[in-house]
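Priority: medium. Attachment 1 of 2:
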């Protein structure tokens, strides 16, 4: 009669499958795992939101900040959602086409009531990063025709940004100067809306065309991060 090898050799595999005394006892169950030696765990793919390409949620929502655009400057510390990269790419292409022209980097469109608040804050953060900004508070001198100077500012800037605030929403409903600036920027395809203190849903109620453009949002990034992304965008 065969003797169990466990006291001397142990059961080397299969809980006794190689033991002359116990192999019969485990043979049936071992047969169902006969491919165990060649088993490899299933491969794991990270969820799609870790990808650095593809579309994400509307207006940058629903996507993780996992992307770096091709125009990101060396040493840039800001990350983007895939939607932000996708929407800013056409703007970047326009900037590159006009890189050789002597132009301001950014035309800052804002509501009059924000000129000493959020608009000035964004302007100062951009200029601190070396961005040349057309800003009505400093570029329209007293006595000059306001509309004519705005037209000149638009013509002399590579790209426009619209600081969308609650004050801006009120102004645009009244078809103010901001509305005129907005129409030109939308027509030229050189527009980046910056949401600040309001939502795209609120903007959609007064300007569906502007709300259809994805942009940057201070509810998702700090004002400093928004300025850093814009500085990356216009660097040539």
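Attachment 2 of 2:
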């Amino acid at each position: 009669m065969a003797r169990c090898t466990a006291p001397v050799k142990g059961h080397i595999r299969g809980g006794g499958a190689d033991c002359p005394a116990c192999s019969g006892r485990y043979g049936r169950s071992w047969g169902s795992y006969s491919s165990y030696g060649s088993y490899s765990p299933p491969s794991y793919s990270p969820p799609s939101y870790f990808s650095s390409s593809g579309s994400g949620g509307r207006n940058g929502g629903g996507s993780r900040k996992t992307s770096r655009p091709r125009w990101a400057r060396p040493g840039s510390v800001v990350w983007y959602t895939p939607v932000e990269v996708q929407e800013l790419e056409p703007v970047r292409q326009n900037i590159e086409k006009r890189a050789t022209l002597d132009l301001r980097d950014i035309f800052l469109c804002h509501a009059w009531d924000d000129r000493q608040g959020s608009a000035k804050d964004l302007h100062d953060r951009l200029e601190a990063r070396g961005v040349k900004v057309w800003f009505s508070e400093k570029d329209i001198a007293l006595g000059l025709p306001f509309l004519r100077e705005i037209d000149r500012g638009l013509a002399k800037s590579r790209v426009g940004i619209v600081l969308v605030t609650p004050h801006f929403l009120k102004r645009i409903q009244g078809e103010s100067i901001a509305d005129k600036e907005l129409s030109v920027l939308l027509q030229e395809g050189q527009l980046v809306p910056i949401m600040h203190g309001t939502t795209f849903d609120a903007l959609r109620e007064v300007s569906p065309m502007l709300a259809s453009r994805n942009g940057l949002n201070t509810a998702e990034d700090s004002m400093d991060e928004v300025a850093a992304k814009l500085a990356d965008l216009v660097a040539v």
